[in-house]
Amino acid sequence: xxxxxxxxxxxxxxxxxxxxxxxxxxxxxxxxxxxxxxxxxxxxxxxxxxxxxxxxxxxxxxxxxxxxxxxxxxxxxxxxxxxxxxxxxxxxxxxxxxxxxxxxxxxxxxxxxxxxxxxxxxxxxxxxxxxxxxxxxxxxxxxxxxxxxxxxxxxxxxxxxxxxxxxxxxxxxx
Length: 174
Prior knowledge:
The protein is an all-alpha fold. The chain contains 8 helices and no strands. Helix 7 (141-148) packs across helix 8. The chain is globular and about 55 Å long. The chain starts with a helix and ends in a 5-residue tail after the last helix.
């Protein structure tokens, strides 16, 4: 209903859609991009694109699913355009540890997160997107295939390869 009203030019309806779906879109983009700032830019671009394309929205899937695809595609485009960067010293600042956890636990968590981030950088863009959508977002192979416009078998292969790379890279954490 809100998407229909927004497609007719109702800005308040679109604002409600942005408030409702913004956090999930940002979380997805951050996982795909690996950077909060780049994720925010990608989501902003995705919402602008969604606003412009709302008259084309047919409602075959829910608005959230449609927006998910726009965000994923925007992130893919940005990742493809990104020049490879090998600066491993630019690890994001870790979040403040939970005051209830021990310093050892906080150090282990930070080290594991750093190692996972480094391992994720070893994946191809396609493997990373498929792995994040499957393992983090919990999407089905068919849904991922539809989003990234490849066959479900190709999605399975990319997720399999990504798991293999990540398993090898994270072997020390078993």
